[in-house]
C-alpha cells in the first residue's frame, strides 16, 4: 500500500479526487496526511475524510529555507512513499526537493515544457495555441522543469475564457493524477527510471 502526503494551497479538487479514489478498498494507495502553506479551503476535505492535516505558513519563518525545513519535518513524520503537490502554489526549496526526490510529484495545467509557471492557462490562451493539456511530473529544483511522467492534451475551443479552459483542464487533471498515482502504486510508472532517463549525460 502506497502511503501519500498531499500538499495543497487552494480549493483541493485534486486532493478530493485522490481521497475519493482511496476509499475504494482495491485502490493501492492511502493518503496519510494533507499539508498546506495557508489556511486553504481544501483542508476541509482532509477533515471530511478523517485525514490528519498540517499547515506551515511561510510568513512565520525568517526565510524560505527555514520554512522549507519545517515543511519537510512535518512531511517526514508521516514517512510517506510519495508526496503529491496538488495545487501547491509555492516553489519548494532545494533542500526539500533533494530530500524527497524522486518521490515528489506535481500536476501542471499545460503540456510541459510549454507554459511553465503560475499562469499556464492564461499564457496558452495569449499565445493562441489550439491545444494545451495536463502534465504530471517529478518535481526538481527548477520551476516545472522536472521529468515528465504522463501528459494528456486538452483542446482550446474558440471563444474560450481562461476560466472555461481551466475548468476543462481541471477535469482531466483530476483523472490523470489519480491514474498516475495508481500506476506508481502498481509499479507501472517507476519514478527512479524516469529520473535516470532525464539525467544529463555525465551528471
Structure, explained:
- By secondary structure, the chain is of the alpha/beta class.
- The chain folds into 2 domains: 1-100, 3-Layer(aba) Sandwich (Rossmann fold), CATH 3.40.50; 107-203, Rossmann fold (3-Layer(aba) Sandwich).
- 37% of the residues lie in helices and 21% in strands.
- It is built from 7 helices and 7 strands; from the N terminus they run E-H-E-H-E-H-E-H-E-H-E-E-H-H.
- The chain has a 7-stranded mixed beta sheet with strand order 3-2-1-4-5-6-7, with helices on both faces.
- The longest helix is centred in the C-terminal third of the chain and has 24 residues, at 162-185.
- It is globular.
- The protein starts with a strand and ends in a 6-residue tail after the last helix.
- The relative contact order is 0.15.
- It catalyses: N(1)-(5-phospho-beta-D-ribosyl)glycinamide + (6R)-10-formyltetrahydrofolate = N(2)-formyl-N(1)-(5-phospho-beta-D-ribosyl)glycinamide + (6S)-5,6,7,8-tetrahydrofolate + H(+).
- Residues 4-181 form the Formyl transferase N-terminal domain.
- This is Phosphoribosylglycinamide formyltransferase.
